[in-house]
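Can you make up a protein sequence with its backbone structure tokens?

===
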Amino acid sequence: MTTLATNKRARFDYEISDTYEAGLALLGHEVKSAKTGHISLKESFVTIKGNELYLTNANIPLYKHAGVVPNHNPTRPRKLLLRRSEIKQLIGKAKTQGLTLVPIRVYTKKRHLKLEFGVGKGKKQFDKRQTIAKREDEKRMKRALKNS
């Protein structure tokens, strides 16, 4: 299992409760580009259209050895492959509880590309400050233990 891209802001901006694994429906040159590490989850999100989930705004540039690909859009919506029961459960959570579906990382599992995304609730500014304060306190404690 090799991690190809991570969304570093996901756990900082959202309080993630559950995580899910989904396959990605990609074109051939997008798979090659992603497997070489040319994929970015920055500012991407998961949207619901009808009874399907899509990864929106994830940037997968054109594979450099692909040649001419007409109408290539690096940030096009890409369908997520999940079981129907999981999709219904996620749609219910997103609509009734007001939760957000946040992509966390893209990785390979055997020969397939997978997306890990979480169901999260947005953090407020003071929650982010508390997270930073906890991290700083832990750093100070480690330094103190290391020096003594």
Remarks:
- The chain has one domain: 2-123.
- The first helix runs from residue 10 to 13.
